[in-house]
Records
---
Amino acid sequence: MKGLAELLAEHPFFQGLKPEHLEYIATCSTNVVFKPGEYLAREGEEADRFYVIRHGTVALELFVPHRGPLVIQTVREGDVLGWSWLFEPHRWAFDARAVTLVRALAFDGACLRRKCDQDPELGYELMKRFARVIAERLKATRIQLMDVYGNAGGR
Amino acid sequence: MQPETLNHLAAGPGRTFRPLWARVLRVRRETHDTWTLTLDTGGPFAFAPGQFNMLYVPGVGEVPISISGDPTSPGPLVHTLRAVGAVTRALCSLKPGDLVGVRGPFGTPWPVDRAEGLDVVIVAGGIGLAPLRPALYYLLRRREWYGKIVLLYGARSPRDLLYRRELERWRGRFDLVVEVTVDHADPSWRGHVGVVTRLIPEVSFDPWNTLALVCGPEIMMRFTAQALLDRKVPPENLYLSLERNMQCGVGLCGHCQLGPFFVCKDGPVFAYPRVAPFLGKREV
């Protein structure tokens, strides 16, 4: 059976991270499984963790009164889910629902913040990786906001 | 009167300036605003994948519409179009038996012959799937000549997806990768939600040996081209289908000028390096 550090090393988010860093942060993670329909996170609740998706699809949803939940994005294997653990007030900004069976590694946010404070090199490396994810999601969201498939007029 | 009789009466210098009369055989509603017309032109209508026709509704006007049928199987002419203006609304309101004027086919085709021995990545956005469908039919007909074939399709919402039954059939094939994403959805949708460019880093293909065909709104094509170049697809293997205000179809009127090109004659399909300097440029 593979150890958590090996599972981390296989995930695109952690590729290239030093083996000693992988071993160091693996102690903050646990293997988790969600059935379809189960929630990985709920809007407004304490964001004390983030997930590294190993298998399956997760829908990020916002509940809109009179319209119900709207799916704003899906993430799947190879993605990470959640960065609210990094910044105060550590609250989830959306619901995250398992669309399919989801296997993931859940990271304890407080544990990881402590380790990043103790080892700034690790902290900087992780921060760069999260910044890249945030920038990519922001870019994708901007394109989504443009409603590019909307009616541009014509003959 | 049959289309062949009408076309005999209208005999002239080809179908460049004088329309060929076609009779509507079928009108199929694809989505809430998009229809597919099947037209009888009185005989086989040869075309290459990616070409377009000018469709004419008497008393209303003429519009350029891509051909979306199968180029490998001679049969009626097929066009899928979205009702966005007076002419397209008139076309979408036609009934079986009505007549439509057809000029064409015009324009440059998808370079499907260049794809032999390569992986092919097709990226479609919205109604952009219609001009790509003939290329996919062509590739699937000669499936053994190509490496991986990947179709990435993005739409506004699940109700805006074109050719749903065909998409399901294609997804069921073992020799074709099909990924569909929408910009927003309700929880009943079990597919991807997000922009189509996000699928590009996730699918498996050999970038150096890939031919990419892209069609959709121009801004989506710009971001898609960037994502494909980031994956190291050679720029000269990347093709886009552009849309401008095509009127004459043969590069005479100048309405569809893009820098040194007339999109109707030099395009609509362009190799990326030819048009890259003009994409996103103001006043072009």
Note: Confidence is low (pLDDT under 50) at residues 5-14 of chain B.
---
Amino acid sequence: MKKLIIALALVASAQVLQAQILRPVKWSYAAKKTSSTEATVFFKATIDKGWHIYSQNVGDGGPTKTVFTFSPSQQYALVGKTKETNPIVKFEKMFNMQVGYFENQAVFQQKIKLKSKNQTAVKGSIQFGACDDNECIPPEDVNFNVTVK
Amino acid sequence: MKKLLFYTLAAFIGLPGFAQDNKALEFNIQGKINGKMTGYVYLFYPLGENYKTDSAAIKNGVFVFKGKLTEPVMASLAASRNSRNSDDPNMTSFFIEPGKMDMVVSYGAFKQLTLKGSPSNDELERLNKQKAPIRKEMEPVLEAYRKEKDHEKAAAIREQFEPFNERMDKIDEAFISTHPDSYISAYLMRFKMSSVALDKAKAIYNGWTDRIKQSGSGKDVYKEILELESGSPGSVARVFAKADINGEQLSLADFKGKKYVLIDFWASWCVPCRKGNPHLLSLYSKYKDKGLEIIGISDDDTNHAAWKKAVDQDKISVWKHVLRGLKRTATGYDKSEDITEGYGIHSLPTKILIDKNGIIVGRYGGGGEDDAAMDKKMAEIFNN
């Protein structure tokens, strides 16, 4: 049976930052080894009702797209781009472009090629901004550190 | 055999923590799990700056967790299960405390966990019980919302949540005001800081006992009150100086003794901000000759072109524009020149009105009043 590693970002942090007093989005992480040399890392955003975050594929000058940054590592290599679940797509006149966004939840996944037989740490950060109908939270970075065993 | 391991989220980028002056005391959870004789259960709880993840082997349906805590904290328990879903039936949250606790949980229904020996958790359960009928009443609406695929219709359903949420908020508020010595009050209050009026937040905080003020959540609330206060009516507006959109030097001090200044925290990518620009433009046209200046402070430090384009497109180049001044660094952000510091800005748009003496006289959005209150205030100031 495939090994599954789950990392949880707990919602109930007592050490929430000042800048995150309003926290409509919670991230959780998981990694799944698909073969002896490959694995997929999952990132799930749980989004409060009424709020949304944006797709990775928003054009320049549009709303705050979600950006994944992986720290360079000798232990693994990225395979392709970070995939995302299908966003809701709407034409936004203000930006004169199609804008993809997510409500309730979004799952992103990144395939990696493992270069080491040992436990591999996949580190990096997610930058995202969230909006509801009345306000937006400026983009913030959340660091992740997911271990593939 | 399936192996399952849990990891906590790496440290968030953060502010320096408070010095730990509270002594760590031992806790001990004697657990029983129904429907599972072997395997592991996992406990997650905050410990200082980080999260502690602990595992315990189940032996004949019994498990034990031991550790140290400085105060009651929200913890979670989960079982080994191939799910990445936080709605996992084998995961639940509760308050744990220093001391001895007894826990009983059923495999497949962690949410029905019972915990003895944690007075804070007893309080949390009583609070949840009060809210349960409202949750039940709300369930059909939630269900309809989950099923609705059409975005516009879903948005309409969402609006029906509001009265339920308001009723639940009232219960929370009543709990907070009647429990000044509860860690739950401080915990709840932290999440309400973005929506509670400053005076009310101060009154609640001042009513707390010392141990609640000194708790992690209590300290967070205090910091937030200070920050919000510095950007609320009655405080001296923090002076900033920056090169503006045309490259000319601009300082808030330039307007002292001359004009009322509305500082508008916004961004090109912020749809609700952009939608508010026509209204700001109408206020500006009305009052600019009567002594109003607007300074737009945009969160567009990473994309100047988008900022300039939005200013043009929304025809707001008639007033002053500067960037917020947030710098990205390799490890996070440099906030040394960030104008939003000292104004308690957590969301956009937030508008702050400053009088000719440099004193804040109004805050709209971002924990302040609404736009109607802003219109009224300006009418009072400029039509007299």
Note: The first strand of chain B starts at residue 4 and ends at 8.
